[in-house]
Amino acid sequence: MARAPSKHGRDQALDFQGFLSDLQDWELSLKDKDKDKKMRPQEPNKEIPKSGDFGTSSYSRNYDPINTISSSFGSEDSLPDAASEKDLGNEYFKQKKFKEAIDCYSRSIALSPTAVAFANRAMSYIKIKRFQEAENDCTEALNLDDRYIKAYSRRATARKELGKLKESIEDAEFALRLEPHNQEIKKQYAAAKSLYEKRILQKISEQEKQKVGKLDTKVNGHSIQPVSSSTQRTGMTAVEDHCKKINTSGKQASKVSVQELASRAALRAKVLAAENITPPTSAYQFEASWRGLSGDRALQAKLLKAISPSALPQIFKNALTVHILVDIIKCVTTFFIDEMDLAVNILENLTKVPRFDTLIMFLSSNDKADLAKIWDEVFYNEATPIEFAEKLDNLRTKYCLKR
């Protein structure tokens, strides 16, 4: 039989069991503390930065250049575009920061060239007296839109400053045709014309001075002797009469000289124009060449023949005037018999020019009578083949000419 444990042994066993229980509780408390420590976020390092330590400065913590750049260009809306660059250029121009405005307009043109951007950059160039660049930009603007009045006006200003007075007058004159009541352009035209006339008069005066020369104070190598007062008075009267005659003859000579110079200049211009006839690419170029050859139908016909008839709508676009339309038709009559196919082709393509119907509505009664007479006496003749006669009959309806 086993012996039952004593009271002392039982007490020791209970103490040991209590010790083990306390040990387990202690281990559990340590594990709980570890869990709490892991779950709590670590506090940032609050060390005071040393002098020159940009890595821990407040600026470096708050500003990230890469993120800033990426956020600025991250979306398509924030990317630079032609319109916004042009608008920014306008703001710089208002602030008289013309070089900055030029930079903005240049970027706008690089992104998407427009007549407005070119003309605005031209105005900025004018403000800083870079007139050649201004003229070039206006020409580019007119190549994009040949009815843009501001481009004509600004090119007239640039050309006047460059001394190209005749070309300046032509630009202002063309702008006035597009907008006849524009007071600023009227002043511009008058100023350029006045300078041009002064230049011509100055040339005439210089030529007269070369002819007259200097008056000698001696006669036949001898000095003029003093005379009595009565003789002086008689002599003075004679001199005054002689001077009046000289002045009168001088004025007449000046008038003759002006007429001669004008006719010679016109003749030289026509000769040069005839030698350098090239197909125009815009309404402005056509009108400038056409006016330069005015009065000579043969040269105007030569210019007309240098243009492909199918190119006429693209050349004139919205800039064809009633005067030019009627003048072209009158010119066509000069070579109709010899080159009937070309003549009819020109008449057909003129009807394809934008705003043709509007132009026909504004034909005066005299213009309509002249055109009807041309159709009856020139286009409807016995030598006209039937195929061309039918086309001309249809064209007569398009030109709204009564029989």
Q: Which features does this protein show?
A:
mainly alpha, 70% helix, 403 residues, 19 helices, 2 strands, two-stranded antiparallel sheet, 1% strand
Helices and strands in order:
Layout: H1 7-39, H2 58-62, H3 65-72, H4 82-94, H5 98-111, H6 115-127, H7 131-144, H8 149-161, H9 165-178, H10 183-212, E1 218-219, E2 222-223, H11 229-275, H12 283-292, H13 297-305, H14 312-316, H15 322-332, H16 340-350, H17 356-361, H18 365-379, H19 386-398
Antiparallel strand pairs: 1-2
Kindly summarize this structure in a few lines.
By secondary structure, this protein is mostly helical.
Beta strands, count: 2
Number of helices: 19
Name the beta content range: under 5%
Helical residues, percent: over 70%
Structural class: mainly alpha
Would you write up a description of this structure?
- The chain has 403 residues and is mainly α.
- Helix content is 70%, strand content 1%.
- The chain has helices spanning 7-39, 58-62, 65-72, 82-94, 98-111, 115-127, 131-144, 149-161, 165-178, 183-212, 229-275, 283-292, 297-305, 312-316, 322-332, 340-350, 356-361, 365-379, 386-398; strands spanning 218-219, 222-223.
- Strands 1-2 form a two-stranded antiparallel sheet.
- A hairpin with a 2-residue loop joins strand 1 and strand 2 (222-223).
- The chain starts with 6 loop residues before the first helix and ends in a 5-residue tail after the last helix.
